[in-house]
Write a structure and sequence with these properties.
alpha/beta, 2 domains, two-stranded antiparallel sheet, 11 helices, 13 strands, globular
């Protein structure tokens, strides 16, 4: 049996599969390819069966979203390494080689992300993951190559292999054993930031997350849910708060959460001044759900958390006040 499984989650994504599945099939001979279908109502499954008979299909019984969709499907995948790949990812020749070599040579490495560039502008980093993910004291994620809406041009500056804090769910490699030991993604999240939560839980177990700049993929981004969609705002704000409640160190939990809630309030005011009232409502709704499920997520906390989870105290201060637009190694 091949040691690597590429698993692509699909929901009504026939057009994306038509465009991007060919590159995965062409450049992934060393892996078994699966499509995990979240009960699509289009003819995605028929298309795969007729066009790519070598691709294995796992059919979920409902649209479970990203987190539960993968958890359900991966029960049936027994390869040693999982490559969880968005349906809007174009891969490149030898994209698997350096990642598999890294897993093979570093047994302490649990999760790996490749370099993620923009499919529409291949000289630029892409928002979801870019050159590897980090987080600030208040739970705001950022990447080398992408801080908030500022994206860097790929000049080879992130062709390295380094430890990072989180890997993007757009192209997320993880050992099967680790995925199962961590109980996979938190299904309450549905979608967005569940991969950061999983990486944070891995970090709290002294496991390593790495970025491998020798492997490159191209990501469309926003193909399933646009940045302008208020539901995406809701999921990001809600899930970020839940994630912090689960994973922050005990001595920082309530002070940091209080300051984060205050920063969310400032974001809401910004949306209001811009006339984006649906996004303001999304933040208010996110906070409501945070309080509604407060004790549920408090009870999900593991026995140990570490203080050194962040590289910079406040990425919002660095970006909006100090006008820092790119990642600096001094973080």
């Amino acid at each position: 049996m091949k040691k690597t499984a590429i698993v692509i989650l699909n929901w009504n994504g026939k057009k994306l599969l038509e465009e991007f599945l060919p590159s995965v099939v062409r450049f992934s001979s060393e892996a078994t390819i699966y499509v995990a279908d979240n009960a699509s109502s289009d003819d995605s499954v028929t298309f795969i069966k007729n066009t790519f008979p070598s691709v294995k299909i796992i059919q979920n019984t409902d649209n479970f979203g990203f987190a539960k969709g993968y958890n359900q499907a991966l029960r049936f995948v027994e390869e040693e390494y999982y490559a969880l790949v968005n349906s809007d990812i174009e891969v490149t020749e030898n994209w698997l080689t350096s990642v598999i070599d890294l897993f093979d040579s570093e047994p302490e490495t649990a999760i790996i992300q490749p370099k993620i560039l923009d499919y529409k502008n291949k000289q630029m980093f892409e928002y979801a993951g870019a050159g590897g993910g980090f987080i600030d004291k208040y739970g705001f994620p950022f990447c080398r190559g992408r801080i908030f809406q500022t994206l860097e041009k790929d000049k080879g500056q992130y062709n390295d292999t380094i430890d990072i804090f989180w890997a993007s769910g757009a192209c997320f490699f993880i050992r099967k054993e680790i995925y199962r030991n961590l109980d996979g993604f938190d299904e309450d999240f549905f979608a967005h930031q569940e991969e950061i939560d999983l990486c944070w839980r891995a970090f709290n177990q002294n496991l390593k997350v790495k970025y491998c700049g020798k492997s490159t993929v191209y990501h469309v981004g926003g193909a399933t849910l646009k940045d302008s969609n208020p539901h995406k705002t809701f999921l990001n704000f809600r899930n970020s708060l839940w994630m912090m409640l689960k994973n922050l160190p005990k001595n920082k939990l309530f002070p940091v959460l209080f300051l984060r809630l205050a920063q969310d309030g400032l974001a809401g005011i910004k949306f209001m001044t811009e006339g984006k009232f649906s996004h303001l409502w999304a933040i208010l709704k996110a906070h409501f759900y945070f309080y509604l499920k407060f004790f549920r997520f408090l009870n999900k906390r593991e026995s140990k958390q570490y203080n050194n989870y962040y590289k910079i105290k406040s990425i919002t201060y660095y970006y909006f006040v100090k006008k820092g637009k790119v990642f600096e190694n001094k973080f």
